[in-house]
Specification:
447 residues; alpha/beta; Rossmann fold; 2 domains; seven-stranded parallel β-sheet; 20 helices; 13 strands
Length: 447
Amino acid sequence: MHLSNTTETYDFLTKNHIHWFLVSRELDIQKEFQKELNKSDNLTKFYENSNLSIKNFIENVNLETKKNKTIVYITDKCYPSLSRQAEFMKKNGYKTFLISMDSLSQQNLEMIIGSFDNIIQNLSFFPTLGKVLNSITPNFFHVQCWMWQYSLGKFVIQKNIKSKVISDFYDITGMYANQNDLNMAFPKFIIKQDFDCEKFIFENSDGIIHRYKQSVLNEYAKKYDKKGKILEFQQYPVEIVDSKNKLNKKNQSYKFVFCGILIAPDDQTQPKELFNSAGLHYTFKKILENNHEIGVFLPLSYNSQKYKWLFDLKQQFLEKLNIYKFLPIKELIKEISNYDFGINFQKFDIKKTKVSKYTYNGGMGTKNYTYLEAGLPIIINKEYKYHDELVSKNKIGLSLMSKDLDNLNFLINKANIKELKKNVRKFNIKNNLYKKGEELLSFYESL
């Protein structure tokens, strides 16, 4: 195999028609794709089918930019946190547009309805994106920066001249773990490329939005010669939803819910030293053994083999463990409001972990806010200090050490769940998108 440096891989990816689904693959694989593409007429057909929609999108952005403030969001698939920001900015007078490098399913589209004035999807190739970027001058580009896809953020900054660029991070690779420890689960070349792109993004973005505790992010960012402004912005609730499940007495059977990606407890490709959520298996089993109910809502796409452990567990607890298909976030929040607790608690060994101090000190899971929006108290690990601060300060759930798992049933029965749910409602009223969104507006206007 040809061992390429990251600059060579990035240049080849961005200068040639390499499909988006190969964005984090090795150079040899990308070159093989290009060879096969050149043998076919697929690229010609791609442009024949997309040129008109690209032209119309460009004209629409440029026309609106003459009359209004405009934001062009650029993503792989657009996730709820970003689409909600777009919806808020749209309601506050901005014209919002979405460029999706990937294709969007009907479920994807349902999640972002009302957020954008115009959407172009399945752009597929960096040179195609480059043509669009060279043809539009919105007030802002807002790029969704996802781990192993930071090349998208770097590319937009390099291409753009006049517009301000905001880079929106979810997990930040360097804050998750160091390079050597990431080698346990990921190829060296993509780790190095992500770190290189991360540095470029931090040092060249006009603004950065993230979901870490601000002070922890600021500490980490000292390693970079950053010039742009930085804003912490969580997935704040849109609606005030009251949990519908009414509790009459203590020591009853409770309903727990989990939403999101799961990691198998024995998956060697996702070692538990790097993936604490591998410990969810033990949490689920302990809850079920205590005669409580769990509802699991699957992600939109998942590897059935990697989820075999979950379906095996279902066979042990047929009446207590229920597994449901993916739901768009608005439907999901409505559905899970019928539960008592949201689960974001797992068993892990803090002495063996390779996850960095930045994650433990400042990381925040978006699922915490999904549960809270549904009116649910949350159960989280105290080892995650920002999770603990969120829960303990607002009295909106249980913050437990991993070692407390054996006492989980006692601690749950000891809690005043009705009071916790009242506190969740107060939290949502105080921290909803429309109140916190003023910070987002001020951030944009300050750039």
